Amino acid sequence: MIELRHISKVFPTADGDFQALDDISLTIRDGDIFGIVGMSGAGKSTLVRCINLLERPTEGQVLMDGLLETEDGGPVDLCKLSPAQLRRARRSISMIFQQFNLLMQRTCLKNICFPMEIAGVPKAEAKKRALEYLDIVGLPDKANAYPAQLSGGQKQRIAIARALASNPKVLLCDEATSALDPTTTRSILKLIQDINQRLGITAVIITHEMAVVEAICTRVAILERGHMVETGTVEEVFSNPKTEAGRRLVFPEGANIDKFPVADVVRVVFNGGSSYEPLIASLAIDCGVKVNILGADTRNVNGKAFGSMLLGLPEDKGEAAKAMSYLRAQKDVTVEEVPDYHA
Amino acid sequence: MLDLFNSPEVQEQFSLFLELLPGNIWDTLYSTVLATVFAYIIGLPLGILLVTGEREGVRPLPRWFMAALNFIINILRSVPFLILMILAIPLSRLILGTSVGTNAMIPPLVIAAFPFVARMVESSLREVDRGVLEAAQAMGASPFQIVRKVLLPEALPSLLTSATTVTITILGYGAMAGIIGGSGLGATAINYGYYRTQLVIEYAAVIVLVILVQIIQSIGTRTAVGSDRRITKKGRRKGLRDANRQVSRDKRVPPGAM
Ligand SMILES: Nc1ncnc2c1ncn2[C@@H]1O[C@H](COP(=O)(O)OP(=O)(O)OP(=O)(O)O)[C@@H](O)[C@H]1O
Ligand SMILES: [Mg+2]
User: Fold this and answer.
1) Which residues of B touch A149 (CB under 8 A)?
2) Residue B257's pLDDT is what?
3) What is the spatial distance between Cα A144 and Cα A147, in angstroms, rounded to a whole number?
């Protein structure tokens, strides 16, 4: 378990102090995949960097258990550890960076061995484990390649192998997939989810892509300008964001338009209702309006439907308005217009 | 032109030069290599401290210590080499019992070069990506492990490039040491050319010095580029070109060098 208690971080800058984090408390349970979302500059990176103390909080406690043996078996406050103890604790907390941060003068294999080398794992065993993880991330033929010879996605896989090979208890990912294309992103997320389910690793994932949170997170926290404005399960937060910041993130294009439809195509977003087919059927039955399904992309998050669907409204403005108001009245559904669909 | 070459005066000087040449080259290389090695023995750890000891470094040291270190290095760097050498003559006498000859050149050369080495090492180590250092810290690496396994290996190509510049600088210093009783190609150029106006010997010695510098530079550049794993095979030619350009742009050569 990771427990952050009243974490504040103040950066002294040329023009006065800057409060990057303001009194943040949150609990991340063992085995969670915890998402941290927020706009750029909200303090996400600063917050995860406080977890492994790359950034020392100005105030507050970072409590973790299971990293060091303590007399009472309870959690330790990382901020209170000696440098040597902190180094030992950090060996169980891996981090994946957006810029990969691989050692450029070492082969991939040696890069993956690096944390084990630091921790004093015998060479032969380290190599064996490194080769195993090269296989797991799908790059068994790159053992002797140098990072400069890899693509961005491949570098990130090596970084993930490096982070996991030392058997950490916690995995911190700061925008680990932002530099990658959607397919690679999906395969890397899959990998993290796999590792989480197989090894019970606790993962903290920063991202600005809601799709990433939907895809793998169990719980999520929303940061805005150094404050934590919402936290909860992904279903809770995504189906019913309580704050303005939350709504802006979950529905970036704005979902609460209450006007006559000006476009003849709308996007219907499902925020965790059961399924979308009954909705279209009931729309036809209840108000006698037939719509075309132009496209659908839904995902199943822990048994609930998330995703969106493009609907072509009838040409008749009155009928279209009727359909709109019907759709808007539905629970767990938001509707927005797609003005330039035909363009 | 032919007359000039056939004149007995020139021929005499030339044959004298050829006689001196092997010994001179040996003396020059011997003093250069030894002085470079000793300058690195002192300068490398100092350069590492300059980077790791600063406030944001991997092992911050007390502010007064860093300030003193920087101050001493700056003082030594700002004294012109010739004067530093004259000041260091008693040191040679203390260590070696003599202040003339090939060995006696080495202590002043080391004194003059180690602060330069420290700065060169410092600037090479600063080129290492901060993110990589953070990654190592996040893995729980100790400051010593970071220096040995991250800073030095990651900066190796740059360290080799700057070692080439250092070697050539020390070669240049060594040539000047002829004035205070050193030996080697520079001493020959000064003693025969300047003091006895035997210009053939002077020019010939200078030409050999130039050739030595060219050889050291090209070996150094090749080694540096060859060691750099950021450069893939295809980029190797380009890397070589860039490294050469960097050398010609290098403004870090100290006052009075060469
Ligand atoms: N070392 C620092 N010194 C001063 N200010 C800092 C420092 N690091 C971060 N900040 C400030 O703290 C705020 C939060 O930064 P942070 O990097 O945590 O944002 P973020 O949420 O990760 O943003 P992004 O999504 O763009 O990565 C920013 O306004 C930034 O300017
Ligand atoms: Mg960030």
Assistant:
1) 232
2) 44
3) 10
Identify the sign of the CA torsion A280, A283, A284, A286. Answer: positive
Which of A232-246, B127-141, B235-249 has the lowest average pLDDT? B235-249
Per-residue model confidence as pLDDT tens digits over A54-81: 999 999 999 998 888 777 778 899 999 9
What count of other Cβ atoms lies within 10 Å of the Cβ of residue A55?
Answer: 18
CATH top class, domain B25-209: mainly alpha
pTM here is 0.80
Ligand 1 pocket by C-beta < 6 Å: which residues?
Answer: A 11, 13, 18, 20, 38, 40-46, 208
Residue A321 pLDDT more than 60? yes
pLDDT at B258: 40
State the pairing for strand pair A16-28/A202-206: unpaired
Q: Which residue in chain B is spatially nearest to A163 when comparing CA positions?
A: B139
Sheet-wide strand order for A2-13 = A16-28, A2-13, A59-64, A76-77
Q: What is the ipTM of this complex?
A: 0.85
How many whole angstroms from its chain centre is CA A38? 10
Contact A88 B137 (CB under 8 A): no
C-alpha span between A147 and A307 (Å, rounded):
37
User: Which of B92, B128, B98 minimizes the C-alpha distance to B111?
Assistant: B92
pLDDT (mean) for B138-161: 97
**Cα-based angle B216, B221, B227 (whole degrees, multiple of 5):** 125
Does pLDDT of A240 surpass 90?
no
Using alpha carbons, list the distances in angstroms from residue B238 to B157, B167, B181: 15, 24, 44
Q: Are B140 and A119 in contact (CB under 8 A)?
A: yes
Cα–Cα dist B19/B14, whole Å = 9
Q: Is B97 exposed, middle or buried (0-12, 13-18, 19+ CB in 10 A)?
A: exposed
Q: What is the mean pLDDT of residues A224-242?
A: 89
> For residue B252, what pLDDT is reported?
47
Contacts of A158 (CB under 8 A, 6+ apart): A100, A102, A108, A111, A112, A134, A137, A139, A142, A147, A150
Going by their DSSP bridges, the two strands A265-273 and A93-96 should be labelled as unpaired
pLDDT of residue B101: 85
Mean pLDDT of A220-248: 89
Q: Tell me, in angstroms, the distance from the centre of ligand 2 to residue B188's CA.
A: 63
Over residues B102-121, the pLDDT tens digits come to 888 899 999 999 999 999 99
Q: Could you give the residue ranges of the DSSP H alpha helices within B79-179? A: 81-87, 89-96, 102-126, 130-138, 143-146, 152-176
Distance from CA of A135 to the nearest CA of B (A): 22
Residue range A274-278: mean pLDDT, rounded: 65
Nearest-by-Cβ selection for B232 from A93, A105, A149: A149
Higher pLDDT, A249 or B60: B60
- Chosen from B139, B154, B238 to mutate, greatest number of chain A CBs within 10 A: B139
Q: Which residues pair with A273 in a beta bridge?
A: A305
For residue B21, the Cα-to-chain-centroid distance in whole angstroms is: 22
φ/ψ (deg, to 5) at A21: -130, 140
Name residue B233's amino acid.
K
In this structure, are residues A76 and A70 in contact, taking their beta carbons and an 8 Å threshold?
A: yes
Token pair 């309870």 is found at A74
In one-letter notation, the amino acid at residue A113 is C
The arithmetic mean of pLDDT across residues B50-61, rounded, is 94
- Measure CA of the first residue to CA of the last residue in chain A; give whole Å: 51
Distance A307 CA to ligand 1 centre (A): 31
